[in-house]
Structures are given as C-alpha cells and as structure tokens.
Write a structure and sequence with these properties.
- The chain has 155 residues and is α+β, with helices and mostly antiparallel strands.
- The chain has a single domain (7-130), classed as Pnp Oxidase, Chain A, CATH 2.30.110.10.
- Helix content is 33%, strand content 34%.
- The chain has 5 helices and 7 strands; from the N terminus they run H-E-E-E-E-H-E-E-H-E-H-H.
- The protein has helices at 7-14, 56-67, 97-109, 131-141, 148-154, and strands spanning 19-25, 31-35, 39-42, 45-50, 71-76, 82-93, 117-128.
- It has a 7-stranded antiparallel β-sheet.
- The chain is globular.
- The termini are far apart.
C-alpha cells in the first residue's frame, strides 16, 4: 500500500544537488545500485528518468515491474539528513504525452541526452536514515544493549 511522502522527503527528492541512489535487482537476484540525479517527485509520484534504454537499471526496472519486485531509493541532502524509500515500479512511459513532457524538458537542459524511459514508482515505505534518528530508534528498541565503556562513564 502506498505511503504519503512528507514535504521534507519531497524537497530532498526534488533537489538535484542531493545524492540519490537507486538499488534494483536483476533476474538472478543480483543487486545493482546506481547514482541517479534524475529521481524526483511530481504529480504525487516518484519519477525516474532513465536516460539509457539499454542500462542495467532499466533492465532491472522492467524485471521489477513484470514480477512486482520492489526497488530501493536512498536520498542524502547537504546537511547529512538521509532517507530510505522502498517503492514499487507501477508504470513506464516510452512514448506519449508523459514521455514527451520529460523528453522535451531534458533535451532543453542537454541536447546530447536521450531518454530511455520515464518510470513511475509508488512509495511503499519511507524511513529516516539520518544517524541521529537511527540511533534514537535503535536505543529505543534495544535499551539494554550498551558497550561497557559507556556504562562505566555514566557511573
């Protein structure tokens, strides 16, 4: 079931300066992770503009949509905040008005770039992966797990 992204996550996705990594798996289950600056949020969907039609990412995305396999997106902003989004590819556009919209948009930025596909990804889960958030969550889940040196300092 889809989850709603908050404004902070949407802002992080839409900032082209932020680091975004898309992780997919192939037919054999081998993982593939790639930096993708062309992941953003538009019209209530996560959009991936895959620039190379024959890329490993595009091939894995086809496998994911055919077999209902999730993908993973990690986003890190300039302030060391990070999020992990697990999502499901729901639709791909290789022609038509949606494809044309993004094709024109990308061609205006760089005429050398081609557009292999426009992917729509439905977010299923979002987790704050900022160190302080993960640390607080882990300490809450494991309140009695401490290194001895930490216990000794608190006495």
């Amino acid at each position: 079931m889809a989850v709603k992204l908050n404004e902070e996550v949407i802002g992080a996705l839409n900032n082209r300066e932020n680091i975004k990594v898309l992780a997919t798996v192939d037919k054999q289950g081998l993982p593939h992770a790639a930096f993708k600056e062309n992941i953003f949020f538009d019209n209530d969907k996560i959009i991936l503009l895959e620039l190379i039609e024959t890329s490993q990412t595009n091939s894995n995305m086809v496998h994911s949509i055919w077999f209902n396999k999730p993908v993973s997106i990690s986003v890190k902003d300039g302030k060391n905040n990070s999020w992990h989004i697990r999502g499901l590819p729901k639709k791909t556009h290789i022609a038509g008005p949606v494809y044309e919209k993004y094709y024109v948009q990308e061609a205006e930025k760089n005429p050398e770039i081609d557009l292999g596909a426009v992917w729509e990804i439905e977010p299923l889960e979002v987790k704050n992966q900022t160190f302080s958030a993960v640390l607080a969550e882990e300490r809450a889940r494991h309140p009695y797990l401490y290194h001895l040196d930490k216990i000794a300092k608190s006495d």
